[in-house]
Amino acid sequence: MNALEPRVQTLNNRPPRTDGDYVLYWVQANRRTESNHALAWAVHLANLNRVPLLVYEGLTCSYPDANDRLHTFILEGVPEFQADLTRAGIGYLFYLRRTPADPNNLVYRLAEKAVALVTDDFPTFNVADHNRSVPSRVEIPYYAVDSSCIVPMNVHEKRAWAAYTIRPKIHRELPLWLKPLPFTPPSVPWNEALLPCDVAECRTPVSRTTIPELVASCAINHTIPLSKSLRGGTTEARSRLQHFLASRLSRYSKESGQPSKKATSELSPYLHFGHIAALEVALAVRAYAAEHKLVADEFLEELIVRRELAFNFSRWTPKNETLEVLPDWCRKTMAKHANDPRPVTYTFEQFLSAQTHDPLWNATQLEMLTEGKIHGYYRMYWGKKIMEWSPTLDEALRTMFRIHSIYALDGRDPNTATGILWCFGLHDRPWSERPIFGQLRYMSYDGMKRKTDIAAYIRQIDSPQATLL
Q: Of 35, 283, 303, 430, which has the most beta carbons under 10 Å away?
């Protein structure tokens, strides 16, 4: 058996096209050549059928909340990805769909001349929708390959209810999967003459210098600014990884819960958009920790166990932006306290613009607005306070998902879904009962002040409210 097969799902029952010109890899989530199991599977199929490999990547104007920040981050990874593929003798076609009137069927047109179609197995957002709808509309095998998790999602046969239920299995399986995946180019190099002429006309050249112009030409939301510090691409991801290893890993276990200490990797946007693999990160962290006699267990717990718990949840819970997916005890305690009076309520617009009475909460929201992320510990507080200050918990949930969808560079990820739903009790346990929250975990400003340096954090966010503390 090919070692990649446990990662592969065949989503239709079609035979390979015997006279196909190439194998088609439709990139939806993993925009890299290294540690990319879907790309490796596509190379395997191309070699098996003695044809070249074509990689297709599209970026449409019509995904929910499409905006300059998200478009730019994705486009910043394109030139490097294309160069890596070209050096390996792999064809690459990038298509930027600027307006709703532009063609929206390139993957189908390319599939008409393909032996087989390979894509990414990713359990949220448009990727999951595409992997449900497209397979029945093509006449060739449609393979979805998991390149996101270190231990394949397919290993888990049901939804895990908490970290303690999935951790033992991950630890048992990890030695089988925590291994380098060398990139091997296909045997048959790409020939540009194989690209259908009508599709070739749709190709969008992308360079670092043309990205602002390309984004400006798209019918998307142009009011969302770029992240102040986060730029897309594999080189940028690896630079951040090296900085984490050299300057932060030794402090991670003691200071990762202190947002002002800057001890986390800040790799979540790059993992989400596939500019770097969790596998590459884990191997690098493990090697660096061994060489420098550091303990990396806490970081690897977050990167592997907690992250893959989130993917497991999203795999087995496709419609996850609802409170109905929560355990019974969560829904019962929320129902019991549904009519509890709130100390204060805010509108979506007030939340969005960071106009609350709480200087820490406002600073976390400003971090989201300016950077496209919030430190994980403060993101818990951010969510808990939206629950406390919203008229209903359903409205609180909608607010959290909406803000992430618009502003967060890691906002359409399984980790986002589970992180938000954790605020409502997912993967948690019952606590002492209190108003509004019932038995859900509560977080307070005073608790944050005892455990973290709020003033230092607010100064870093450059909030004018720093003077209030």
A: 35
CA-to-CA distance for 443 and 421, rounded, in angstroms?
15
Helix 78-87 with 234-247: angle, nearest 10 deg: 100
Half-sphere exposure of 215 (CA within 13 A, CB side): 23
Position 360 scores a pLDDT of 98
Residue 52: phi, psi to the nearest 5?
A: -75, 175
How far is residue 455's CA from residue 436's CA, in Å, rounded to a whole number? 28
> b/e per residue, 389-427, with b = 16+ CB within 10 A?
bbeebeebbbbbbbbbbbbbbbbbbbbbbbbbbbbbbbb
pLDDT in tens, 65-92: 999 999 999 999 999 999 999 999 999 9
- Alpha helices (H) along 303-453: 307-316, 328-336, 348-352, 359-371, 376-389, 393-407, 414-422, 445-451
Domain at 323-468: CATH code: 1.10.579.10
Domain segments of the chain: what residues? 1-184+206-318, 323-468
Which superfamily does CATH assign the domain made up of 1-184+206-318 to? HUPs (3.40.50.620)
- Please, what is the angle between helix 376-389 and helix 359-371, to 10°? 120
* Residue 129 vs residues 80, 144, 318, 397, 463: alpha-carbon distances, Å: 27, 12, 9, 21, 39
Below-50 pLDDT ranges, the chain: 464-469
Q: Distance between terminal CA atoms of the chain? A: 62
Output the pLDDT for position 1: 57
For residue 3, what pLDDT is reported?
86
Question: Looking at residue 465, what is its pLDDT?
Answer: 45
CA-to-CA distance for 459 and 262, rounded, in angstroms?
A: 13
What pLDDT was estimated at residue 319?
86
Question: Other CB atoms closer than 10 Å to residue 255's CB: what's the count?
Answer: 15
Number of helices and strands (H, E) in the chain? Answer: 22, 6
